[in-house]
Amino acid sequence: MIDIEWPFYTHMDFYGQKKAERLFQIIIILFGIIGFIIGYMMQQFSVTIYSVLLGTFVSVLLTLPPWPIYRNNPIEWQKTIDSRIYSDISAQSLITKNFESL
Fold this sequence. Notes:
Low-confidence stretches: none
Function: Component of the signal peptidase complex (SPC) which catalyzes the cleavage of N-terminal signal sequences from nascent proteins as they are translocated into the lumen of the endoplasmic reticulum. Dispensable for SPC enzymatic activity.
Shape: elongated
Pfam family, one: SPC12
Keywords: Endoplasmic reticulum, Membrane, Transmembrane, Transmembrane helix
Family: Belongs to the SPCS1 family.
Helix content: 55-70%
Strand content: under 5%
Main location: endoplasmic reticulum
Order of helices and strands: HHH
Number of strands: 0
């Protein structure tokens, strides 16, 4: 597999994902409500549709890129384990358990 090094951050932590999802929902709902009210007063359903489309565009700009506000809680990953060491240990423990049971 090709390992590509990007010059910018491409990740978002779990709390950032939750924050982005909540922001997306709030923006879409607000633009939908405001568009519905204005469209109802103007008797133009197209105003409601354009308002929701504008809200979708704004929410995509605010939530799709991994902005720094979505990367405040980095994940602490465990260190890698050398599997050869543990496979040797488990094989030795199986051998000693078999001899002890006899």
